[in-house]
TrEMBL record:
Residue spans crossing the bilayer: 105-126
The protein's name: Ubiquitin-like domain-containing protein
Coiled coil: none
Domain of life: Eukaryota
Keyword Ligase: no
Alphabetical list of Pfam families matching this protein: Rad60-SLD_2
Residue intervals of the Ubiquitin-like domain: 7-73
Keyword Transcription in record: no
PANTHER family found in the cross-reference section: MEMBRANE-ANCHORED UBIQUITIN-FOLD PROTEIN 4, UBIQUITIN-LIKE PROTEIN 3 HCG-1 PROTEIN
Alphabetically ordered keywords of this record: Membrane, Transmembrane, Transmembrane helix
InterPro entries according to UniProt: Ubiquitin-like_dom, Ubiquitin-like_domsf, UBL3-like, UBL3-like_ubiquitin_dom
Amino acid sequence: MPEEDLVELKFRLYDGSDIGPVRYSSSSTVAMLKERIISEWPRDKKMVPKVANDVKLINAGKVLENGTTIGQCRSPFGEFSEGVITMHVIVQPTLTKTKTGNLEMLMWALYLLHTMGSPILLMHLVSLN
């Protein structure tokens, strides 16, 4: 596989720890990444995803869809071609998904507040609901 077809990724977990970095083919799908994340997830964490639908990946502020390839996820403004791309991982167990949309919005807002430390961002997210 030619070197330019590989993308180096790491996955930032909710507590600030990382999985990776690992090189992936740009044709790998988000669903494939989620399966890899689940298989490498540290078992000592409080929240452990059991299936791919328990995991959401965020890159450049966007939630990535399962059928999207890594090549399609790259920022149009260009990322450092030789750098590691960090994708953020949110664990949203299936049980939580069955509750109201307000709870889901609150979980997203708290996650973003924790990772980015911006109360303005938190207020913006809450106002979207």
